[in-house]
Structure formats: structure tokens, C-alpha cells
Amino acid sequence: MLGVIALFLKNKSKGLAIAGTVLSLVAMILSIILAITYTAGFAGAVSEGIKTAQAESSAEADRDVAVIYEVTGTSAGSSITYSTYTDSNSGTEQVKDQALPFTKEFTIKAGGTFDYSSFYLMAMNGADDAGDISCKITVDGEVVAEHTSTGAYASASCTASSMDLNE
Fold this sequence. Notes:
alpha+beta, Immunoglobulin-like, four-stranded antiparallel β-sheet, 3 helices, about 35% helix, about 40% strand, rod-shaped
């Protein structure tokens, strides 16, 4: 900028003024080119990151996850209640006078619309069952909840949610 001003001054040599003006123009052009290059590179990286995240999310949403409810113990007639909430669908079932061991297996889809699941299993001994009763919830091969109780009318309760699984 000062090179341009120096060009218009009278009785001064113009060599340094021309050199300063040329160097200023070259620096300005390089600055613009580098700004465009960096912006394009950043935008490309962000776009690629979004595509990768969407592909991973889509693959996760299509994955089947095995869930297993198990009750074990010495009880001859347990009362068992279990419920599941996943992707805005829920269901609760109860069985009475159930001989042990008891197993309920089912499959859910991972990463559904709401991407939240909760699991509940409760087992209770009868009046004549003084032994142990245990519950266990396994999700995708990993035990996520376990509990054991002992005695008449003892109850074992297991709960887990997909929020617990992500920690």
C-alpha cells in the first residue's frame, strides 16, 4: 500500500516503490490462493467425516443384538416378570410357578429410531422356597445385570438400559 503512495510522490526514485507494490500484490494473491485452498481442504474433510459417520450409524442401525433373560436357583415354583422397551415398542410378560432354570431369548435391532432400549427382569421365590434365586441379563454377549437373593419370598431384580451399555 505504501509502495503505491510512493509512486505518486514527486522528486523521489520510483524503483523501490515499484518493488514494494509488486511484492504487495504477489503477497495478496498468495494469501487469497492459500485461503481458498485451506477452506476447500477443511470443507472436504468435514464432508468426508459426515459421510463416514452416516455410514457407521446406518451399519449400526441394521445390526441385530441378542438379548437373554436368565433365572436360576433352587426354587420349584418361581414367579418371573420381564419387560423390554426398544425403539418405542414395549412388552411385559409374567410366568408363575416356573421351574428353574428359566431362559428367554430374543433379538432387537440396534440403533433404532429413538436409539434407546431398557430391559427388566424380576424373579421371586415362593413361600416354601428358602434357597437362592438369581437373575441375569445378557445383551450382545455381555452380562449387563446380575443379582442374587436368598430365602422365602426372596426376589432378584435386574435392570439395564442402552444408556448403561454406552458407558
